[in-house]
Amino acid sequence: MKKELRIFFTAMMFLTRLPVPRFTDHSPDYLEKSVRYFPLIGWMVAALSALPFLIFNKYISEDIAIVASIIAGILTTGAFHEDGFADVCDAFGGGWTKEKILLIMKDSRLGSYGVIGMMAILFCKFLLLKELPKFTPDLQAPSINIFYNYRYFLLTLFAAHSLSRLMPVLVMRYYEYVTDPDTSKSKPTAAQKPTFPALLVPIITALIPFVFMPWQFLLTIIPVVYIAFSLAKYFKKWIGGYTGDCLGAIQQVSELSFYLSMIIIWRYVL
């Protein structure tokens, strides 16, 4: 149990800015095993993103609540995945060879492609989240329990953050890692591919929120997996595999894909 707790806190240290016990370190062995808890870390990010939404939505407005939720998520993770997405935009937007793409990706400076990509993904996230509360049936006859009223919206956040963090783990299992491990954000989680038994924990964790939702929402998994592996295939075509920044981009795009799929199912299937 103590070992598993240390692995969990290692995952929390790696993916978030949340404080962890002092015994947590950057042990390569624990970092490699920490991928099993990536979706569970997604639950934590979702919870910390949901709380300001509920507060600001009750006392100010829905738009401000969504902005507060997005900011809370960014502060929780330190923009870890968003930064990876921006670096990928810069690298693949400005590089035409594997060497050039990897060189740009390692550059800590943010270029025009990265700025535009960051603005686009945050804007899309705001618009998609703005649509989600409108399809919460309980709002037609709200109770005094705000958690119950917004239970589908909250479950959507938990499912989105956990499922989107499962996608990089799956990509790590089936694709090759490239670039110098000493300069990568995925160091050293990508040093060894997760085994199939090791994937069971993150898969189950990512699927738990769906237990409390209508079964039709399971359909959202199909486009999320398709888009995540399409991105991985694209990365493999250009650089021969993935980097830590590529995994961050996959997480962000998977999250947006999930929100869009939820809206489509809510509107046209249920």
Automatic annotation (TrEMBL):
Record key words, sorted: Cell membrane, Cobalamin biosynthesis, Magnesium, Membrane, Transferase, Transmembrane, Transmembrane helix
Top-level EC class: transferase
InterPro entries named in the record: CobS
Domain of life per record: Bacteria
Cofactor annotation: Mg(2+)
GO molecular function terms attached to this record: adenosylcobinamide-GDP ribazoletransferase activity; cobalamin 5'-phosphate synthase activity
Catalysis: reaction(s): alpha-ribazole + adenosylcob(III)inamide-GDP = adenosylcob(III)alamin + GMP + H(+); alpha-ribazole 5'-phosphate + adenosylcob(III)inamide-GDP = adenosylcob(III)alamin 5'-phosphate + GMP + H(+)
Membrane topology: Multi-pass membrane protein
EC number: 2.7.8.26
Biological process, per Gene Ontology: cobalamin biosynthetic process
GO cellular component: plasma membrane
Keyword check for Coiled coil: no
TM ranges: 35-56, 110-129, 149-175, 196-229
Compartmental location: Cell membrane
Pathway assigned to this chain's UniProt record: Cofactor biosynthesis; adenosylcobalamin biosynthesis; adenosylcobalamin from cob(II)yrinate a,c-diamide: step 7/7
Entry similarity comment: Belongs to the CobS family.
NCBIfam families registered for this protein in UniProt: PRK00235.1-3
PANTHER family xref list: ADENOSYLCOBINAMIDE-GDP RIBAZOLETRANSFERASE
Cited function: Joins adenosylcobinamide-GDP and alpha-ribazole to generate adenosylcobalamin (Ado-cobalamin). Also synthesizes adenosylcobalamin 5'-phosphate from adenosylcobinamide-GDP and alpha-ribazole 5'-phosphate.
The protein's name in its UniProt record: Adenosylcobinamide-GDP ribazoletransferase
Species name: Niastella yeongjuensis
